[in-house]
Fold:
Amino acid sequence: MLQIGDISVGWRDIVDIGLVTLLFYRIILMVKGTRAVSAIYGLLLVLVVYFVSEEVGLYTLHWLLANFLGSIFLVIIVLFQRDIRRALTEMGARGFWRKKVVEDDLLNEVVGAVLSMAQRRVGALVVLERNVPLGDTVERGIPLDAKVTKELLISIFQTSTPLHDGAVVIRGGRLGAAGCILPLAVSPQDRPEYGTRHRAAMGITEESDAVAIVVSEERGAVTVSIGGKLTTALDATRLKRVLRNALER
Structure:
């Protein structure tokens, strides 16, 4: 028991404060850089107007905001349902005490394939599963269960093959399925050069913790999507570093 003035602090209080602090820290990390930040600012503005309206005597406005804030938890669930679902999914799938190790052979095959396709202006979309299972996405594609090789990835995305239209999903170090249909992001960061493949990469990484690699056939550029954010201007060294840092978390 710790005595601070007239306040007694026990080990339960310390654990309680620590858990609440960890919860808020995880929430901040979850919404950082997402559209949820704008919604939070909007809610804070409503709270400010609510208190100010009471002080200055704007009773009608205060009454309306009071009724609105009375169902604040429902409002939060509606506004952040996508982020809440993703956070709960990651919490259930994450291994807290183990660190994943990504094999160099897997990274070399994937990096070699996407850079080769970028040089030839062959469009491609490769998704690497992390903690959140992508079984529903794999089921919508053509099952392969094959070893990941540079040659196989390149052959899949040739326009003359029936599997090129869609995404390849790599799970458990193996090529799980090809021709997979992914959810599209609503807005591809307001940049017209981002087409359907980029929107699909953003969509799957917004809904899960997967990592998506896009090869643009128009620009011959390689882009990585993590958490709905796109990273561009990637050479072999930087691409491998970005993938390793993301997959080993």
Q: What stands out?
A: The longest strand covers residues 174-180.
